Every structure is written in C-alpha cells, then in structure tokens.
Amino acid sequence: MNTDFKKSFLNDIKKIKDQELKEEIRRMILRVETAQTLQVIPGLKKLKGYKRNIYYRITIDNHRMGVTIEGDLVTFVIFRPRKDIYKYFP
Predict the structure, then answer these.
(1) Domains assigned to the chain
(2) pLDDT recorded at residue 15
(3) CA distance 23 to 77
(4) Distance CA 2, CA 69 (A)
(5) 25-77, pLDDT tens digit by residue?
(6) In the beta sheet, which residues pair with residue 46?
(7) Pairing relation of β-strands 63-70 and 55-60?
C-alpha cells in the first residue's frame, strides 16, 4: 500500500522519547507499506459513526495511530495515547 504522513503525525512522533515505542511505530509503518489487504494489518479497526468510511485506528500498546484509507493510499494523521486520540481524531 502507498503511504503518506501528515505533519501532525510527524510532530507527534518527534515528541516521543521512548526508543522502544518508536521502533514499534517503525515496524507498524513497514507492515502497512507491505500489506496487500487491510485484513493483514494487525490492530487495524474502522471507526464507526462517520459518513465517510475512511477513518481507522491502529493500536500500539496504550497508543493509537489515527489513519485514513482511501483506495490504496494510507495517510497517517495522528499518534496519541489512547485517552487523548479521540479528542483530536477524526
């Protein structure tokens, strides 16, 4: 799949000091890039309640990646702790 990164996602990643978490994020991005279908991406779940069905989240420990998926393009929008993600995404 093709990937794109919003500036907000990159800024969230820069703020992280835990190197192990950064490595998990890197591995997840590689999994998404090499995935042939959405079903093989671990922790991916569609968000309900929105007219446009493009909003998804990916779980990494107690954090969430907010992504949009349109066709073959996965856009990484935001990365926040579980308690804060839904205040800012979508």
Answers:
(1) 2-83 (3.30.2310.20)
(2) 94
(3) 18
(4) 10
(5) 999 999 999 999 989 999 999 998 877 789 999 999 899 999 999 989 999 99
(6) 56
(7) antiparallel
